[in-house]
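wait is this the right file?? whatever heres the structure
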């Protein structure tokens, strides 16, 4: 894993670039232009942008990430942003579709590996859409192995979903102000079984309840008496007519009782009443939850592969 930089570690060398291209560190002021770059990549792959501005901003808030050292932004001959990368426990590389085939992806990958080695990481991880065949081929050619699979699931809701009876002793209501830290504990406890590390409240909140797109009205929580035992956290992503579920968590002591299905159906119905006719969420092969979502009627829209590479010191 990536830790703090060892004593004496400074800024990594800039990536070698074709003539006319230049690079610098990214800053939070670059969030809108990076969002535009990522949106262009997504439109090429999916026909539309799927990442919101909050998601790009959250990259800069990752604990331990120093934008001056751990990010790079590439500008093209006309000064336009054409590529970016960051490294912090894992890495992300994007190259504008109009500037691919010129070695930018390879250069940014080299930079990411160099930076990861510099801070003492023994491994680098990247998640790449399976439809981006060139990026997948590049990673495989560079010695990356498959670590896991992620799926984007969807459900069509032409009619209002039916919410089942709650299990005995279980009550469900929408998320309320003041629930933040209880939901954080619940989610992190539930994900402890497979996630690489436990997130602090501050980091978790930036990705969920403090996002401008957080949608408490369609984020139901379940209680057994006064104890919170389940939660769904949803986002209202601008520019789309779909609902999106960011997190689903049920305490391990209350699993296999139908609570997750109950919360999901509450969420589906809530989005339907907001005139959303599709709802989506991502799940990870490490959670073992794919079959749960398939049982409530969700199907796979697309997939991504999590690649991992052991880094030998240079």
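ok assuming it is, sequence goes like this
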């Amino acid at each position: 894993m990536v830790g703090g930089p060892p004593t004496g570690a400074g800024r990594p060398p800039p990536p070698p670039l074709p003539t006319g291209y230049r690079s610098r560190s990214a800053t939070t002021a670059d969030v809108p232009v990076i969002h535009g770059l990522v949106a262009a990549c997504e439109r090429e792959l999916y026909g539309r942008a799927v990442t919101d501005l909050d998601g790009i901003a959250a990259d800069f808030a990752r604990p331990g990430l120093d934008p001056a050292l751990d990010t790079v932004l590439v500008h093209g001959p006309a000064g336009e942003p054409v590529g970016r990368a960051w490294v912090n426990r894992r890495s992300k590389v994007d190259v504008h579709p109009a500037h691919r085939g010129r070695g930018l992806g390879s250069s940014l990958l080299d930079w990411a590996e160099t930076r990861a080695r510099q801070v003492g990481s023994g491994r680098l991880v990247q998640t790449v859409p399976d439809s981006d065949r060139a990026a997948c081929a590049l990673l495989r050619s560079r010695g990356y192995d498959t670590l896991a699979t992620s799926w984007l699931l969807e459900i069509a809701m032409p009619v209002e979903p039916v919410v089942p009876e709650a299990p005995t002793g279980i009550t469900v209501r929408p998320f309320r102000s003041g629930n933040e830290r209880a939901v954080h504990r619940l989610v992190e406890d539930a994900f402890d079984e497979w996630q690489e590390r436990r997130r602090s409240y501050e980091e978790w909140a930036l990705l969920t309840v403090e996002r401008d797109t957080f949608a408490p009205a369609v984020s139901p929580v379940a209680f057994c008496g006064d104890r919170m035992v389940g939660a769904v956290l949803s986002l209202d992503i601008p520019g789309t007519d779909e609902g999106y579920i960011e997190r689903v968590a049920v305490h391990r002591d209350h699993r296999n009782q139908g609570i997750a299905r109950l919360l999901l159906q509450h969420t589906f119905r809530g989005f339907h009443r907001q005139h959303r006719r599709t709802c989506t969420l991502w799940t990870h092969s490490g959670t073992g939850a794919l079959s749960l979502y398939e049982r409530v009627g969700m199907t796979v829209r697309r997939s991504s592969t999590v690649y991992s590479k052991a880094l030998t010191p240079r």
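The chain is about 30% helix and 30% strand. so i think its the right one actually
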